[in-house]
Amino acid sequence: MTKIQQDLEDLTQKATSALIACEDAAALEAWRVAYIGRSGLIPGLLRNIKDLSDEEKRTVGSAANALKRELEEKYQEQLHVIEKGASTRGVQATNCKLQAGGGHLHPLTLTLNRVHEIFSAMGFIIADGPEVEEVKFNFDLLNTPAEHPARGAGDTFMVDPMSVNGAEDLVLRTQTSPMQIRSVAAMQLHPPFSVIAPGRVFRKEKVDATHESTFHQFEGLSISETTSIADFKSVIETFFSAFFHADVVIRLRPSYFPFVEPGFEVDMSCVFCKDGCRVCKHTKWIEVMGAGMVHPNVLKNMNIDPDKYQGYAFGGAIDRLAMIQYGINDIRLFWSGDVRFLRQFDRVIPAKAGIQVDPPSRRAGVDAGSSPA
Ligand code: FA5
């Protein structure tokens, strides 16, 4: 390889990674001037071609011209992304050309890792459990009456016993809440303890921009002799403040879930505005999870004495958090496999919570029961 060919190769790599790192118009303009502008490195390289032999002129010249065209195209694409405000927030499917490159994490994995980091740092242990779940765990032990609409085949994916060696009463779990019961039993937890269980859930939903039939929840459970709603509010405020790097305030609204009493919907103050914006639908609040104080019947089903112990449980969606964090306007993009969408996360560097994070051994992924199927 001649020196000029080597220079060309080095320049290709340098220019491509520098372009990917441009997140605003000023950085992009500086890149344009440095690489493809009139006095930039690429035109400079092309000017040197005149000193080469005829054969080198042909090979190196056509390669350098192709590189110049390619970088100009990529520059236009990046400009388009930045103008649409879609570099980190406001991510949408845009026209990017397929190109070879290193792999990177999916936005849901980035979000899940962050949830792990923050709750681990607050002393929660992480549990994992089955996606094919027994009706007993998904509903009965969670104090959900037989006539509850969520139990019907209209809302829940039933598992055909024929497909699982005749095992009956299995469903695709509709929520991560069965992990409340499973994690306590499998890890033989005794209060005080705090546990978090992320995982995939399934519902017969009409899929639209904000509803998927397969999505990801994270369940939280914290029990002690004194755990109160105030503790819940403080932990969740700390979580969302760390997650969004902002001073988040939490608001609780009364709601009903069979496994908690009282139950509430949790809203967080909008992290993008003070006076209302598109993300908070001009309400200044964003609905983020369901929660409540664990129902005495559920404590009993965990073999925990409800006269002595109390605590809170909560369940939020990883997908919704990712949408808020990255400004994704359609949940269906996560499963689309559309590389134009996915490649926009190749430059998202997993942020640190800014609080002490426990070593990985703590979140070894305690398995709280295997699939009964
Ligand atoms: C539950 O699933 C309860 N298990 C949460 C809970 C846990 C309450 C513990 C009390 C104690 P809900 O159906 O509201 O609640 O779902 C929780 C969150 O999942 C919602 O706030 C919403 O952000 C998200 N979610 C619900 N349905 C969908 C869907 N189809 N697609 C994406 N996200 C959804």
TrEMBL record:
One of its GO terms (cellular component) is cytoplasm. It catalyses: tRNA(Phe) + L-phenylalanine + ATP = L-phenylalanyl-tRNA(Phe) + AMP + diphosphate + H(+). The keyword Phosphoprotein does not apply. Binds 2 magnesium ions per tetramer. It comes from the Bacteria. Residues 115-350 form the Aminoacyl-transfer RNA synthetases class-II family profile domain. GO terms for molecular function: ATP binding; magnesium ion binding; phenylalanine-tRNA ligase activity; tRNA binding. Mg(2+) binds at E261. GO terms for biological process: phenylalanyl-tRNA aminoacylation. The keyword Metal-binding applies. Belongs to the class-II aminoacyl-tRNA synthetase family. Phe-tRNA synthetase alpha subunit type 1 subfamily. Its cofactor is Mg(2+). Its EC number is 6.1.1.20. Keywords: Aminoacyl-tRNA synthetase, ATP-binding, Cytoplasm, Ligase, Magnesium, Metal-binding, Nucleotide-binding, Protein biosynthesis. This is Phenylalanine--tRNA ligase alpha subunit. It is found in: Cytoplasm. Tetramer of two alpha and two beta subunits. PANTHER family: PHENYLALANINE--TRNA LIGASE, MITOCHONDRIAL, PHENYLALANYL-TRNA SYNTHETASE.
